[in-house]
Automatic annotation (TrEMBL):
It comes from the Bacteria. InterPro entries: Aldolase_TIM (IPR013785), DapA (IPR005263), DapA-like (IPR002220), Schiff_base-form_aldolases_AS (IPR020625), Schiff_base-form_aldolases_CS (IPR020624). The record marks A49, N80, E84, Y106 as: L-lysine inhibitor binding. This is 4-hydroxy-tetrahydrodipicolinate synthase. The gene is dapA.
Length: 292
């Protein structure tokens, strides 16, 4: 259902801070042409926390419209208030999305029972497959494997995006959740190894600007051509690392603008543009990766 190279899509803004739908269409077309396996619209990389509910829903529905069935669109529906995530689920029912991706509630630091109840409530209000998203480095809460296993028993909770970078969890999740439960990496640096150890793919920041390389790499991995896949992975490793030299998506939006993929690299406060000190680092990574 969900596998391969899926992009955690940036949300383009005009210089006045409004969503740039012309650039959004260009991004969708770019990923279709590059062979990406899916798009996450308005996930955390898409600055979901800074969009209004109305903007959030419009960006997702426009992405579905622009995709026109050529590539699956997964909607980011995460929030730190359960009722807000439930609202997204209700509003996006019958919208044409392939699934929902919901990050663990940030700042609140719920217990494992709170996380279970949060995701259970979201799943009950949605008619599409649900992907859990664990990224404790950004949210200050960790979704434990045994809680993932409890949630995997809910019919439409079908996958986990794991951005811990802890590869030992793959075997734990597989044992606890069964062979049919989908495991996706959210950590670009370890994404290929994640798949080598039994994962199904990656939801990637790097994919925003190196889409064709990422698609090729995970296609090779699926075919068992690990040496060829690793050659690509090592070439784009500077992107995996240096697109996080400042808080994501600051570096990747600067890079996407530099490549002409979006008309403006603007972000919404509290995020600010890439610092002058960091620009050469990202530019060098793009050169080393042979994408610019």
């Amino acid at each position: 259902m969900f596998s391969g190279s899926i992009v955690a899509l940036i949300t383009p803004f005009n210089s006045d801070g409004e969503v740039d739908f012309i650039s959004l269409k260009k991004l969708v077309d770019f990923h279709v042409a590059a062979g990406s396996d899916g798009i996450v619209a308005v996930g955390t990389t898409g600055e979901s926390a800074t969009l209004t509910i109305e903007e959030h829903v419009k960006v997702v529905t426009k992405a579905v419209e622009f995709a026109d069935g050529r590539i699956p669109i997964i909607a980011g529906t995460g929030a730190n208030a359960t009722h807000e995530s439930v609202t997204f689920s209700r509003l996006l029912n019958n919208s044409g999305i392939a699934g929902c991706l919901s990050v663990t509630p940030y700042y609140n630091k719920p217990t494992q029972e709170g996380l279970y109840q949060h995701y259970k409530a979201i799943a009950e209000e949605s008619d599409v497959p649900q992907i859990l998203y664990n990224v404790p480095g950004r949210t200050a809460v960790d979704l434990h494997p045994d809680t993932v296993a409890r949630l995997a028993e809910i019919e439409n909770i079908v996958a986990l995006k794991d951005a811990t970078g802890d590869l030992s969890r793959i075997a734990a999740h597989r044992e606890l959740c069964g062979e049919d439960f989908i495991l996706l990496s959210g950590d670009d640096s370890t994404g290929l190894e994640f798949v080598r150890q039994g994962g199904h793919g990656v939801i990637s920041v790097t994919n925003n600007i190196a889409a064709e390389d990422m698609a090729t790499m995970f296609r090779l991995a699926k075919e068992g051509k690990w040496e060829e896949a690793e050659i690509i992975n090592q070439r784009i490793m500077p992107l995996h690392k240096n697109l996080f030299v400042e808080s994501s998506p600051i570096p990747v939006k600067w890079a996407a603008h530099k490549m002409g993929l979006i008309a403006d690299g603007s972000l919404r406060l509290p995020l600010t543009e890439l610092s002058e000190q960091a620009k050469p680092i990202v530019a060098q990574a793009m050169t080393e990766a042979c994408i610019y």
